[in-house]
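We close this part of the discussion by returning to an individual protein. The amino acid sequence and the backbone structure tokens for this protein are reproduced below:
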Amino acid sequence: MKKRTIFIVGLATLLYNCAVYLLYYFESTAEEGNILNLKDAYWYSIVTLTTVGYGDFYPLTFWGRTIGFLFVLGSLGILGLLVTELSLGMSNYIRKKKEGYFGTKMENHCIIIGWDSFSQQVAQQIVKANKDLAVITDKREDIDKIQLAFPKGNCFALLTDLKKYENFSKVNIEKAERVYLNFKDDSETLVYAINLKKTYPDITCVVALDNMELKSTFTYMGVEFVISKNEIASKLIASFIFEPNAALIAEDLLATSTNDDELDIWEQKIDKGSKLQGKNYFEAFVEFKQNYNSVLLGVSRKGELYKNPNHLLLQTEDVLVFVASEKEYRLLQPLFL
């Protein structure tokens, strides 16, 4: 194909130069001719082929006009070619942009690998929480579904082979906060997690399993958060059966809040220099309730979660888990800095 293209381009170039030379040859000998040298002939051909047509040069002889006519016909072909190429170029650019070809600069965002109705529900909760989200899928029809479901711009979609891990740099995977692996089969999820961790060892993965007997295997392979789909559903259903009011609150807390007054469960890391550093957990609990009408639930330290501990001095890099409305959450932010 490449050789054929080179041959066609070479032949077209040769014919063009021959036509220009013949135009010069016939017109330079004509009485009152105005195309007197090759420079004039090339200028006339370029102006004609590009459909500009200044009219400063024009052929007078029969053969000169015949060659000029061929240039006019050629201009139609070139114009059509330019319009076609421009249209194709714009179409390819729009398609590549739509499919995530040019990547995103999102940071501290969430990533979902694998798209279906379940991952769409997960995505809705992430986007409602005002978190940036990137979705990686290998199905072109999913791109339209994702962009239709999340039109506001905080959800980026990438179409690629799910095994071409090097392409995941386009969603800035190394700077993502969490990566959720969404596959139907637990074994497939395990193999995928292993291969993904080989390429990006520092990412934090989340998986949801049907068979929780595999949890230790996933944890051993470096998957930080392993959740049971069935266990979560069964616990919530059981709670609705024997303690429905508690279940309603739990369901409300699990769902992302949609306005400033709704309660939600939050987590926030204590930065260096924060007023919370060195403070007793109980003192922080009282301060959260008295000053911010929020309830402190626990502390995560180096991957270990302490649920409502009795005596614990808070440290830099500790992550506090608490219940608050979105309005109160914003008021609490300076406390962590």
